[in-house]
Amino acid sequence: MFISPGPVNMPIIASGTAYGFRRTFPFVSGATIGLIMLLLSLGLGLMQFVTAYPAFLKCLSLAGSLFILHVGYKIGSADPELSIKAAPCPDFKQGFLMQWFNPKAWLACIADISMFTAPGSHTPLFLFSGLYFTICYLSLAAWVVRGPRFGVVLDTRKKMQRFNILRGSLLCLCAVYLLLTSLLT
């Protein structure tokens, strides 16, 4: 799930295109650590709240899916003349918080906790968190590495417009999938 297009990966590739790996690395670090903290929080007790109040997860899924759909539309319809460099480079805090408001992250963590926890022991959770950390960092870093390559290719208004439409469409597809999943469960 980390490498699939989503609400964290799209800003990472945009930042990688505009600012390169080194300046985008704090955002990647924040997103990775935010995800691990979400996983650990759920595994160490927050999951009891989610289980006791299933409407919370449903509301989070619906609101998050609609937000991702909105962001996807905004990206897909963005003016290709706008310079990404006009916006500030996303930072650690934004990456960290983005995971806590990302329904895809919540769903992944909840699914993984149900498979990789053991009653009476947190050892499997901590081992899995270490694996999750590594996979997340590598997956998100792969999006940053792709960014500058897109910058070289996106040298015309038409190409940038197509890129925006592709990114926006991928986010909208992700949002529709999450929305349907939420509504059908």
Compact description:
The chain is an all-alpha fold and 185 residues long. Helices cover 80% and strands 0% of the residues.
Give a written overview of the molecule:
This protein is mostly helical and 185 residues long. It has one domain (9-184). Helices cover 80% and strands 0% of the residues. It has helices at residues 9-52, 54-76, 92-100, 103-115, 123-153, 157-184. Helix 1 (9-52) packs across helix 4 (103-115), helix 1 (9-52) packs antiparallel against helix 5 (123-153) and helix 2 (54-76) packs across helix 4 (103-115). It starts with 8 loop residues before the first helix and ends with a helix. The model has no long low-confidence stretch (mean pLDDT 83).
